[in-house]
Design a protein that fits this description.
This is Cytidine deaminase. The protein has 134 residues and is α+β, with helices and mostly antiparallel strands. It contains four helices and five strands, in the order H-E-E-H-E-H-E-E-H. The mean pLDDT is 96.
């Protein structure tokens, strides 16, 4: 399925929404876009809070927006960051992805200068805590 994923469209959406990130403390804007099986793309950016602990990452915001929109079956995730090398999603974002997506979902991270890293969720979170444990 990786050949069918419109990665450029996903990265464009992640880049676009990244510009809306609320990052007055870290100055680290991130954009993410999730592709769903129905072809829809839902994007999210990171939103910081003065208490830091209430900050929500771009990936989690994208997945939460997908839930709010009634989207099901995420099939790919793209992330855009302004770092020298591509930055993978944080641990909390990986766990949220595991809640909604299977271990084989492809996750790509791209820098503003075009460097890209490619992962599967199982590579990022090899021993995910899932509903199968409950």
């Amino acid at each position: 399925m990786a050949e069918e994923i419109p990665w450029e469209r996903l990265f464009e959406e992640a880049l676009r929404v990244r510009q809306r990130a609320h990052v007055p403390y870290s100055k680290f804007p991130v954009g993410a876009a999730v592709l769903y099986a129905d072809g829809s793309v839902v994007a999210g950016c990171n939103v910081e809070n003065a208490t830091y602990g209430l900050t929500v990452c771009a990936e989690r915001n994208a997945f939460a927006a997908g839930v709010a929109q009634g989207r099901e079956k995420p099939v790919a995730v793209a992330v855009v960051v302004d770092t020298p090398e591509p930055c993978p999603p944080c641990g909390m974002c990986r766990q949220v992805m595991a809640e909604f997506a299977g271990p084989d979902i492809p996750v790509r991270s791209r820098t503003l200068n075009g460097q890209e890293a490619r992962y599967s969720l199982s590579e990022l979170l090899p021993h995910a805590f899932t509903r199968s444990f409950l």
